[in-house]
Structure prediction request, 471 residues.
Amino acid sequence: MASPVAPNADNTLTIPVRRLPLGVPVPSPPGPTRWRVWIPTYLGGELTIRCSDASQVEIQQPDGNSLASGTAEAVTFAAFGECFVATTTSGGMIIASLVQTAWSRMHELLPNKPLLPWNFYYWPALRSSGAADEARDILKRYASAVGKSPDDADTFEHDSHQSPDAAGWAGHCHHAAPASALFEQPVATTIGGQSFSEEEMEFLATEWFGNFGQVKNVNDWTLRNTRFPSAIGRWDVLGYLKPGGPKDRATLIKSLGSEFEPSAAVAAGEVWSIAVGSEADFTDWINKDFGKAAAGYFNALQNVLALNGAPLLSNLRTYEPHRGPEEVWNQVVFYYRATFSETWPQNPQDDKDLKVSCEVYSNIDTRPSPNLAGTFASGSVIPGQSSKDAWLYRNEWRIIFDGQGKINASDDRNAWTSLQNDQRQELFAPTNLTQIELPASIRKTGEPFGLGNPVVGTEFLKYATINARFK
Prediction:
């Protein structure tokens, strides 16, 4: 016998289900209405349903299981897959918004224990700078404090880490950035009767990472072109063009000019561009490869940062758009916030074809650098103020998902349409992503510039604390 239906209530089984695309406002008919929203990503996100009138809104997942309700708005976490919305409205517009937020953590299962990197000074490598003299003084005082040779510390720093003709942006950031995530932020300390400020202790932590720190490449992301997967100079061809900028031969040659003599820049640009075909073929090839890079980049952010809670070390390039592509700026990516919208009306029937607006935050190298790159309050990380406590990178991507909530990196529709700083100026794409490993127990071997000053040894761990994640 069928279950009776109350005489004055709507039978929801008779109400047709309408499709509600993410990020697209659509008209809502008066009366009871049911909607289906597709959550495209396997990590899910915060789903917000807003109506322009005083509608009653209920979010259900699965169908019939109420997660949240409210008047004119309902907000809840929604998992991957089908999600249903029931509304009672007098008309107006309805919109569904999906936001995915993630931050680095002390342990992958502990979102309430964030790992927030500290901001740092990059300690320039130009030998004639005042900072170079200051760095050598710090190391000599530290050597004296721990019973080692000040002269050996000074000689190594002068000969191995400093140069009479270093570029103005060159320095110690390749060790300072990972140290800022490996260590708790150091504090001013007295060692062997010598006083060291917080910034000086951060510099010593930088040298310690150079000696004992380890990283590994993140395998699901690389900034590589598909036709000629090798470098022109410092980078391959994608490293000399901007995702949101022109992608033609003239722009490539101009960009190469920051690293090569004019004739060599022209020759390199012509070899790479002419081998592809026409100007249109070159632009199409670059756009597709940037699309693959965008898919891989977001995949790494989801898998490494969001899923595993690991901070990511990256050469995020110069934050100033007028500077050249040859510059390397190592920072720690610790937070992202991605907002999903269907590509409607470009593709109004495909709920796996998404525009993703992703804000990526890193720490910053600045002086003075007293702050962490973010704060933690009410269960959430709040990134610091951009260009003061953190750097904000605004990414616009077109990302194609499959039916299991994973990114389909091989789809040629993927696109990296823009990468901007906080002033909405176009930037170069990051060239690498690496993950910080547990440190070594003995000093590494290698080229002197790739190592820290040997005066900073295992004894330094008496004066600074490694974050729990890396113990």
